[in-house]
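Lab channel / #folding
Pinned by the channel admin:
"Please post every new chain as: sequence first, then the structure tokens as a reply. Keep commentary short and put observations after the output so the thread stays searchable."

First post following the new format, from NK:
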Amino acid sequence: MPVSTLRYDGKCEIKLIVNIHGTEIEVNALVDTGFTAGTGFGLKLPVEFARYANYTGTGYVQVADGRLVAADSIPNAKIIKVEDHALTDEVTLPAIFMGGPRAIGILFLQRCILNLDGPDRTATIEF
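Reply from TO:
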């Protein structure tokens, strides 16, 4: 399994290449363990990336403070590269397009081993 070392300074970001219906985009996504499978989504992308989708669903998403926020979504964003490692088998995740930080959640992280080392300000992810 490939292993990447990430910077960890109270938050952790990971570089991804995401394929949205044929368009590949580099994304630095916040590793968000609170972004659970219960939301129905595994990846949060900026609103402007919805233009790459061949189709979107529309609806409302409940955010952490309880507000309902309008968002577009697709069921099949594909992660094809993590850090400098191309994936042998792409990982398909449902994605939402909305404001705020880009984020990757538990639907992806549950496939990985993630270690956070606060004192050394590093993290490793094995996938």
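NK: The radius of gyration is 14 Å.
TO: also worth noting, The helical segments are 106-109.
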